[in-house]
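Write out a sequence, fold above all:
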Amino acid sequence: MEIIINEIISQYGIINEIISQYGIFILALFALFILILKIVTKIILRAILIIVASVIFPFLSRTFFGVPKEISIQTIFSFIIFGFIILFFYYFLKILWKISEIIAGFIEKISGKEKCSKKK
């Protein structure tokens, strides 16, 4: 147990040495790395989900809906590609939506009008 504690303390000493040598920049770089890793992981997990759903869909459509299409590797790849096209289209629309919100907020700020309330 003491060996593990000493190892942790010695590692903490290395971290202090790195911070003293490079300053706060290394901490900011590490935080940026963690944020980028989180975003990349989220995208990879969504891509895996798209692949799994695209592989399962032809079998389910044939079983439940009686689609007479033969299931082959080409069919599965077609659904995978179509799934990724839908995913990229979704991200494209999401980016356009965020840009339009920013532009609308900027226009409201310039014009001095209050934000539009949603109609119920």
